[in-house]
Amino acid sequence: RLLPTTGPHLFSEVFTDMCEQKGRQVGPRTYELNRTGTDPLLPRDRQLQGMRLLLVGLMEFSYRAGIEKLTLLTPLHTLYHCLMAGVQVKPLGLPKKMDEERQAPVCFITDETSLSNVRDYFHLHDSIVRYLGTSAGDNATYRIPAATPLHVAAE
Question: What does the pLDDT look like over 80-118, one tens digit per residue?
């Protein structure tokens, strides 16, 4: 789920103390990413492939939609994989233990560089996001109106 940071979101309402280093990132082209993951009952290799597709898809969609930043609270092991894949990450605060895991508030920069980095790292160069109303493989830029809540469901 992607929520505009111009309205209520987790860092502004629930985890208000998490972004003490860089402060909350807000703006019409900054969205909060939450409730994202793969089914923990899937075999490990399927979970990893799902996470790869999810990360590349998020970078692709965000870049093409004009979203410049994604803020999120993420487990450190997930953050490590995102950094290894070349996502440009800015820490917003120090990690804290939550639900038996250390999680950190971060900001992903969703530009052409991050998209290119994750595509190269995972060898996923074709468009993996299907845009309703466009032909398959259409690379036209889709711009969402600023500060629109987005609920993206996987097939």
Answer: 999 999 999 999 989 999 888 999 999 999 999 999 999
Question: CA-CA distance, 32 to 69, in Å (whole number)?
Answer: 8
Alpha carbons 97 and 40: distance in angstroms, whole number: 20
Task: State the virtual CA torsion across 147, 114, 154, 14 in degrees, nearest 10.
Answer: -50
Q: Is the dihedral of CA 132, 136, 46, 68 positive or negative?
A: negative
What is the reported pTM?
A: 0.79
Sign of CA dihedral 37, 126, 67, 133: negative
Residue 87: which of 67, 128, 58 has the closest Cα? 58
